[in-house]
Amino acid sequence: MLDKCTAQLITRKDAETRQLDRIAQMAGFATIEPIASRRQFDAADKPNRINFFLAHEGVGIGPLGAILRAVRSREEIGVRFAPVILFAHDMDFEAYLGLVRMGFDDVITLPDKLTMIKSRLCNQLSWLQVYYETKDYFGPDRRRMELGPPSGVERSAIPHSHVRHEFIRNPSTGIRIERSIIRLPIKREKSTHDRRHADNGHWERKAVA
């Protein structure tokens, strides 16, 4: 499947570029393109081709966060819903969870077997993916590992508005949005298009793409 996809490498040092380039080559990506400038990033959208953004932890937490926000704020579906994978060297569990909470589609620790890396990359393709969109976040469910809240932070008991996007990344035809479900807090006037969910305190409105 990866032989129909593009790998965009986001690195800071030549050694990091060589490392990710070798991984991408061995995984079988059709095209591998290091991104060294904003111009290259802006040209990253490839019609009918899935772009993987492969980032190295050496870029730094601050720049990585900025990269995630830049990808997720793009209007092009092929970029906004593209898989952003972080490659990081072995770390403690808390550091790993912190990276997951940032919104990466996957965090792959190195070294790892190529077969395992390729399998995890292919997991981003050809089956239903789910993103959540709130006022300050867009990306995969940060609770997907059944994580508790960050240290010192309590989960709010008050339901918040969010959109659940369901989509498929098809390596042959690109990204297709299956549906988007808008969930609004219960404190709103009921309309004929809404359905109350008493168990989670939300109204649900479905918008099919």
Describe the structure.
With 209 residues, the protein is of the alpha/beta class. The protein has a domain at 2-125: Response regulator (Rossmann fold, 3-Layer(aba) Sandwich), CATH 3.40.50. It is built from 6 helices and 11 strands. The protein has helices at 14-27, 38-42, 61-72, 77-80, 93-102, 114-122; strands at 5-10, 31-34, 50-56, 84-89, 106-110, 128-133, 138-140, 162-170, 174-185, 195-197, 202-207. The strands form 2 sheets. A 6-stranded antiparallel β-sheet has the order 7-6-8-9-11-10, with no helix packed on it. A 5-stranded parallel β-sheet has the order 2-1-3-4-5, with helices on both faces. The longest helix has 14 residues, at 14-27. It starts with a strand and ends with a strand. Residues 188-209 are annotated as: Disordered. It comes from Devosia marina. This is Response regulatory domain-containing protein.
**What strand line-up does the widest sheet have?**
7-6-8-9-11-10
SS-based structural class?
alpha/beta
- CATH C-level category of the domain at 2-125: Alpha Beta
Question: CATH superfamily name of the domain at 2-125?
Answer: Response regulator
The assigned CATH architecture of the domain at 2-125 is 3-Layer(aba) Sandwich
Write down how many β-strands occur, each being a DSSP E stretch of 2 or more residues: 11
Biggest pleated-sheet summary: 6 strands, antiparallel
Shape: globular
What is the radius of gyration computed over CA atoms, rounded to a whole number of angstroms?
A: 18 Å
Low-confidence stretches: 146-158, 190-205
How far is it from the N-terminal to the C-terminal residue, by CA?
A: 25 Å
Strand content: 25-35%
Helix content: 25-40%
Mean pLDDT: 80
Count of separate DSSP helical elements: 6
Query: Oligomeric form of this entry?
Result: single chain
SSE series: EHEHEHHEHEHEEEEEE
CATH topology group of the domain at 2-125: Rossmann fold
